[in-house]
Q: What sequence folds into this?
């Protein structure tokens, strides 16, 4: 909404010294988003005057038409002699009044005017167009031709109101009343503590039976319709300069007098209006829903097929307008022929939701629909119609018809009961009852209180001693956004100043902090970041194509998805069942942009429908849902475990002067899973597995004991080559994904710190030969159990395969065993005995044989 400051001052007596910047600061403090203040004519310098064309000489021999003119500018040039000016425009004639800028002047944009020789003549100034003066689009696309009544030599800067300040306000959807000068003036009047000259306070004649007939078939869609008629209009009448300039400053283009007046009143009062050529209307004006297949040609020339949900204005022939959005071309006022002498003014109030849906359905956003869908003051319709009639009578010489039609659906004013101290509780500031009442009255509310409770409050020293001090607030008709006590509290708080609210840190109750789940989530994130992984947050949406690229079987549970009713993208309509598609997509994008050594991780929810979910009942709005209702709502949701995943590609260790680097491989993915498990206090069991999308020979399954049973918690390894190719990933890309919730249940809530012994460690190595299919994890588990409590750690440091030395199908696993006692230094015999016990148990369980 563009608000010229000069127009705003007509309704609020602002201090003369207040600039647009000052008003901007006041309105922003009151909660309005004033984005910019445009300084019109700030760099404009005269002389700029009204002139009359005396002679026109056509210059020949040039590529375009050129005219040499003499113009009478009175005494503005200091001599009274005609001013000689060269001009290329052709939309003026001898005797026309034009705007002339003389040498020494400066036009907007820093364009200095001086006498100059051009086309063989000397031009002493310019005859100006609206664009050259920064006036905006006036529809003429040529020289400004003024009405003949303006005197030669008059200052055109003042005449054309070229110097002004315009506030550009981004009106939020809940403040539709500010899409008018009336609404913005109300806010300015409150901010400055000045009275408001309400332009809607007009004497309006009572409705009678002589007005143009109106029939409302849908009172819900249109609860108020006012029709007024003006006859005897001068078809040659044009909009005066002041009206055109106000429309231009507000961002609208002047069209014709009748249309300009309806636009002007809309900007002034916020009530959209429409003017019909009375001679083109047949029968009564009606409001109804469109019938299936009906068509309407709107003012923009487009023929639209209407929906049965569209609200339309009709006459006896059918639709003549799209209600609240745009009028029809058949009944428009034709300014080109100049034949319209009688108009019917429509001022109606339509259902905001219906107008919003119609505008979006037809992709037809108009100034009228923007206001209706945000809420228009229904009580302003008759005043807006009267204001339009008055201006038509004044500017077009018309006569107001005595008939006044007003169809109104019965409605009661909206009231809200609010405790007098409710704004205090919301803001954490003591405003007091008087301040609350005063602020609510300033925005137009009628406030009545519980007198008995108020008197008791005064006797009790300001605190209610009997009954609850409540206010009964009747909301003004122009504020449909005020629906509950919190809305009223917001009004009090914003008018008292958001900047006056103290900064108060919340005080949590003792004993409340992060849950165990939240602590584990943070520890895992810190651990992975410390290990060189970068967190990547992705959208939780997937499509069937991503699951196909992962190579999942048709019966894979990850293909059972929860589909969104209104997805952001038709290609990704479902909630993710795994974190890998999003992470691999991020890895692919980064690799494609030149970052080839990548290690990414993500933690988040996945969504696993069980098929047992039921549609919950609709929750009530008049009370808090019961525990059973909330439980039913939770039961309708899919299972949502929290998971963590990593993906790797490129070098895991960089090469340099320190030595060779190495690429990331499946072992790094497995180690990432171990790292996550350690943060939960779990040492997972790792076994070979075959599970999409991993390589069948380089896939590890991770198990942990959950609730007394060994449970699969995730997978890690190298991705299948077909998956790498389908998703356009770097070769040998690796990945890991584990269930954090299962790890939490498997581990301990408290992470225990390691014990540090002051006694030395005894290290012994052992190399065992086993069959190739035997997992190293099983050998390690047997060694760990056999070594007993003296074993501090075990590490696999070598895997050796050689058929000549070890035999076919055999491999050698070399482990480093570290022994330490908490209370003494171990002897060689004790360490050896523990080692031998470990080897014996490994031989019994896995068939291991000491190498050599």
A:
């Amino acid at each position: 909404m563009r608000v010229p400051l000069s127009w705003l001052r007509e309704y609020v007596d602002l201090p003369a010294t207040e600039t647009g910047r000052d008003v901007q600061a006041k309105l922003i403090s009151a909660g309005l988003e004033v984005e910019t203040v445009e300084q019109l004519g700030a760099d404009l310098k005269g002389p700029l005057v009204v002139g009359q064309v005396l002679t026109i000489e056509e210059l020949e021999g040039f590529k375009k038409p050129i005219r040499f003119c003499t113009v009478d500018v009175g005494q503005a040039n200091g001599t009274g002699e005609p001013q000689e000016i060269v001009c290329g425009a052709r939309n003026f004639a001898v005797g026309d009044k034009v705007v002339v800028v003389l040498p020494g002047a400066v036009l907007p944009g820093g364009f200095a005017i001086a006498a100059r020789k051009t086309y063989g003549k000397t031009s002493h100034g310019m005859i100006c167009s609206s664009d050259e003066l920064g006036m905006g689009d006036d529809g003429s696309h040529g020289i400004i031709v003024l009405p003949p009544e303006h005197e030669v030599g008059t200052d055109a800067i003042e005449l054309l109101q070229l110097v002004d300040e315009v506030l550009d306000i981004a009106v939020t959807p809940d403040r539709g009343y500010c899409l008018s000068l009336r609404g913005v003036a109300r806010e300015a009047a409150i901010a400055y503590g000045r009275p408001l000259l309400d332009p809607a306070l007009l004497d309006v004649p009572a409705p009678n039976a002589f007005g143009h007939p109106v029939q409302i078939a849908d009172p819900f869609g249109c609860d108020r319709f006012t029709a007024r008629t003006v006859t005897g209009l001068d078809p040659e009448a044009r909009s005066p300069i002041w009206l055109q300039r106000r429309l231009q400053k507000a961002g609208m283009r002047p069209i014709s007098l009748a249309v300009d007046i309806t636009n002007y009143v809309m900007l002034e009062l916020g009530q959209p209006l429409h003017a019909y050529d009375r001679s083109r209307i047949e029968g009564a004006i009606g409001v109804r829903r469109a019938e299936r297949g009906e068509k309407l040609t709107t003012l923009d020339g487009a023929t639209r097929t209407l929906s049965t949900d569209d609200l339309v204005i009709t006459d006896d022939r059918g639709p003549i307008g799209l209600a609240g959005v745009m009028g029809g071309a058949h009944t428009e006022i034709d300014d080109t022929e100049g034949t319209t002498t009688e108009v019917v003014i429509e001022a109606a109030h339509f259902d905001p939701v219906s107008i919003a849906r119609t505008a979006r359905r037809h992709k037809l956003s108009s100034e009228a629909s923007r206001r209706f869908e945000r809420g228009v003051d229904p009580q302003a319709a008759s005043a807006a119609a009267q204001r339009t009639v008055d201006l038509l009578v004044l500017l077009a010489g018309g006569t107001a018809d005595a008939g006044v039609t007003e169809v109104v659906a019965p409605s009661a004013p909206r009231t809200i009961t609010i405790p007098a101290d409710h704004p205090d509780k919301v803001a954490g500031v003591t405003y007091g009852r008087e301040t609350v009442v005063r602020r609510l009255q300033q925005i137009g509310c009628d406030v009545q209180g519980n007198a008995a409770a108020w008197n008791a409050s005064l006797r009790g020293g300001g605190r209610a001693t009997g009954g609850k001090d409540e206010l009964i607030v009747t909301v003004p008709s122009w504020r449909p956004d005020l629906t509950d006590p919190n809305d009223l509290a917001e009004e009090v708080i914003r008018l008292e100043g958001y900047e006056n609210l103290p900064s108060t840190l919340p005080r949590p109750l003792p004993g409340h902090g992060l849950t165990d789940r939240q602590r584990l989530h943070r520890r895992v994130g810190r651990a992975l970041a410390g290990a060189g992984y970068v967190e990547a947050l992705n959208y939780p949406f997937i499509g069937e194509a991503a699951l196909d690229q992962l190579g999942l079987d048709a019966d894979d549970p990850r293909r059972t998805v929860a589909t969104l009713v209104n997805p952001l993208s038709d290609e990704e309509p479902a909630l993710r069942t795994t974190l890998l598609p999003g992470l691999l997509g991020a890895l692919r994008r980064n690799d494609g942009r030149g970052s080839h050594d990548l290690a990414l991780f993500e933690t988040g929810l996945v969504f696993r429908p069980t098929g047992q979910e039921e549609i919950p009942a609709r929750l009530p709005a008049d009370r808090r849902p019961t525990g059973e209702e909330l439980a039913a709502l939770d039961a309708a949701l899919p299972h949502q475990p929290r998971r963590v995943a990593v993906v790797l590609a490129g070098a895991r260790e960089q090469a340099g002067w320190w030595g060779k680097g190495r690429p990331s491989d499946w072992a790094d993915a497995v180690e990432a899973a171990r790292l996550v498990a350690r943060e939960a206090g779990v040492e997972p069991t790792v076994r070979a597995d075959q599970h999409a999308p991993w390589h069948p020979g380089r896939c590890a399954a991770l198990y942990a004991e959950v609730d007394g049973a060994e449970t699969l918690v995730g997978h890690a390894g190298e991705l299948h080559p077909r998956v790498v190719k389908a998703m356009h990933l770097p070769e040998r890309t690796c990945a890991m994904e584990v269930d954090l919730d299962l790890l939490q249940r498997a581990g301990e809530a408290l992470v225990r710190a390691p014990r540090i012994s002051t006694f030395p460690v005894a290290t012994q190595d052992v190399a065992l030969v086993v069959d190739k299919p035997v997992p190293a994890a099983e050998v390690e588990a047997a060694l760990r159990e056999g070594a007993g409590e003296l074993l501090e750690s075990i590490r696999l440091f070598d895997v050796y395969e050689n058929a000549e030395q070890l035999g076919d199908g055999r491999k050698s696993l070399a482990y480093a065993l570290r022994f330490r006692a908490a209370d003494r230094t171990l002897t060689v015999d004790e360490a050896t005995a523990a080692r031998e016990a470990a080897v014996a148990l490994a031989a019994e369980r896995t068939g291991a044989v000491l190498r050599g």
Observations:
- The chain has a mean pLDDT of 90.
- The longest helix spans residues 828-846.
- The longest strand covers residues 694-706.
- DSSP finds 23 helices and 42 strands in the chain.
